[in-house]
Every structure is written in C-alpha cells, then in structure tokens.
Amino acid sequence: MASRYHLEESVKWRIIGRLEAGQSITETATCLNISRQTVSKLWKQFQNDGTVVRRPGQGRKRMTTASEDRYLALTARRNRKATARRLSSELAAATGAVASRQTIYRRLNEKGLYARKPRVCVLLSSQKKRDRFNWCKEHQNWTEHQWSHVLFTDESRFSLTGDSKRVYIWRGSGTRNDPSNIVERDRFGSGGVMVWGGIMIDGRTPLHVFRSGSVTGQIYRDEVLDPYVRLFRGAYGRDFLFMDDNARPHRANLVEEFLESEDIKRIPWPANSPDLNPLENLWDYLGRAIARRHPPPRDVNGLKTALLEEWSLIPQTVINNVISSLKTRCDMCVRVRGDHIPY
Fold this sequence. Notes:
It is found in: Nucleus. One of its GO terms (cellular component) is nucleus. Residues 150-294 form the Tc1-like transposase DDE domain. By secondary structure, the protein is of the alpha/beta class. It is built from 14 helices and six strands. Strands 1, 2, 3, 4, 5 and 6 form a six-stranded mixed beta sheet that branches. Helix 7 (126-139) crosses helix 14. It is elongated. The mean pLDDT is 87.
C-alpha cells in the first residue's frame, strides 16, 4: 500500500497563487512535481470554500476504532515479543478489524509503543535477586567517604573490529551497498586484548593489558593483585576495601591466600551484578572513545596503545560521578526488589 502524505499549507498556497496568476493546472503540477489530480482537487476546494485548510473529518476513514486501538496496545503490552503480523491476526480474530502491518506500527506508535531491540541482561534467579536486594539495602546509606575507600575493579575485552552497534553513517537512499557505506567484519573474529582496570574516588590504577588472552587465578594474582592492588592497599591503609566480581579466577585458592597474606579486605559483591559496578560505565566510555578515533587502530599493538591513551584521558570527574551514582543504584535496586536496574 502506497504511503499517504499531506501537502504543507505553504505549498498549497503556492499552488493557488500560480493558478490565480493564470497558470494552468497541468503547468502548476509539472513545476511543483505534484500530481495533476492533487492540484485539481485543491483548486476546487479553494473555489468552493475559499481556503486550503483541511476540513475536520476530511480524508480517509481510519481502519481501526478507538476501542480496537486500545485492545491492540493492551495485547502488545501483554506479549511484547509479538510481531506486527501476529498482532494483526489477533486483532482480526478478536474484533474482526483488518489492519496491515504498517497500520499496526502506526497505532502502537500513537500509544507510545515502538519496535526496539530488547536490552540484554544477565540471568537473575530468585536467590540472586534476594542477594542483590540485601546487598543494596545494606549499602544504600553509605556516604561518599565510605565509598572513597573502595577500589572497584573489572576486566573487559576490546576487539579490533570494535563495536559496530555504536557506529552510524550518513548515506543516501539506495546506497546501502556502496563500498563507502559498508563496515567489514571478519566472520571468524579478529585480534583483541583483555584489559583490567581499577577506579576510586579521586584515583585510578593504570590500565593493565594481559599478556595472554585469558585470565587464570595465577595470572590474576601475578599481573593484577601483586603489582597494583597490593600497592593501593599499602597507600590507603587498613580502611582499604577491594571490589572484584565472582569470576572463577578471582575466587581461586591461591588468590584467596594472597589477599589474606597481604591483609587485603574484600567488599562482598552480589553475583551477576554488572549494573551495580561503576566500571561497566567506564568500559562503555572507553569503547566509544576508541570508536571515535580516526584512523582506527589497525593491529593489536595499535589497539593497546589507543586503550592506554584513552584510559589516561578519562576525566577524573567522570570516574567520581559513576562511583557517586552507587547511592542511586542501590535505591533503585531496593525499589525493584533486586531486579535489573537501568545502568
């Protein structure tokens, strides 16, 4: 079905002006690239009504009624994964109304519902939700001074292909397959690096690039805990708290023994809770910074250099702000009883 549109009022008056000046309907239609039928109808309306403004109720009758629109929105909210085709079928079965996919989209848009990719989150069992709720309940009234003793840490992987989901291009209609509009990606993956970093209020660790692509308990101890965390513990004293997640290498026996021998206290951390870790926001910040670089890194060494440079350029105010957001994160998590929060 062809899309329908209405002429802007200024264009309508241009048409009337040309016709009143003596130009023919055909000449006016050709000059303005508008169908002769449209120009003719507009001229007749002006002659009859003295205006080009659309009358109330003028135009094609809506395919659906207000009650059918409400039913459609309710059905979409109850089954958010339903396709437009399925919603159209359910609407027809329930009310007898026949609506195209385009009509379904328009009606749902009018109700504030849009087709979007769902946010992907880690799985939370009932027990994990309780753990998150209890942790946030315990920490939601912590002051900034208390959080200032915590070193938040995490690992992340960055690839040479980057994150194409961040990249948008400007292109003309019908040029989708032009070479300049194509982002190439290796089917079998490409080179990348695993990094580790730590942040505190008014501080950060150097960004560490792991020598190998994977992390074991021994690598974690030798490349992270000993050269970085141990030194931060010494600088901050007995009030220092170390945060890492529950990844298997972090909980290896030799890691536990090292932390105990160095008197490094861990802050308990609920499982499957990247939305509570402020470092996740910085990985996103870092990824966007790499995606903006022109030219982009061409090899693994170039990627390492770029990551180290961009990490050092992150303003400390950004780091302080994401850590200060923990109060809000805890409050939100408590309100939703440990479920996912939008961070």
